[in-house]
């Protein structure tokens, strides 16, 4: 049973890592578009931007309702990354260890 628990928590941790990178890359692409380094007329950039926006928007929208932009700077991606790291550090691994100790 322990290998199955390790595998499930490995997958959960990997998904959270991918989400963290999606938030970082989405923020960088939005900055590059805002400063006109790249533009959305390029089909590849547009597709990547749309995909990352579709992945991150449902998680960032509730935070944007609570946290206003500070001087025109949106800090919600930073807050979301901190939440993801907190879930990984303080919830995911202790929960795995607790399940392993309960099951033997």
TrEMBL record:
TM stretches of this protein: 7-33, 75-95
Name the record gives this protein: YggT family protein
Keyword Transmembrane helix in record: yes
Record keywords, A-Z: Membrane, Transmembrane, Transmembrane helix
This protein's GO CC annotations: membrane
């Amino acid at each position: 049973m322990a290998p199955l628990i390790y595998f499930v928590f490995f997958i959960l941790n990997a998904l959270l890592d991918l989400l963290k990178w999606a938030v970082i890359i989405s923020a960088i692409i939005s900055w590059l578009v805002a400063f006109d380094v790249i533009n959305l007329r390029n089909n590849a950039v547009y597709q990547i931007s749309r995909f990352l926006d579709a992945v991150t928007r449902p998680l960032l929208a509730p935070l944007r309702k609570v946290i206003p932009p500070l001087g025109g700077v949106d800090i919600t991606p930073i807050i979301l990354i901190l939440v993801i790291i907190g879930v990984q550090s303080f919830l995911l691994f202790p929960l795995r260890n607790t399940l392993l100790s309960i099951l033997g």
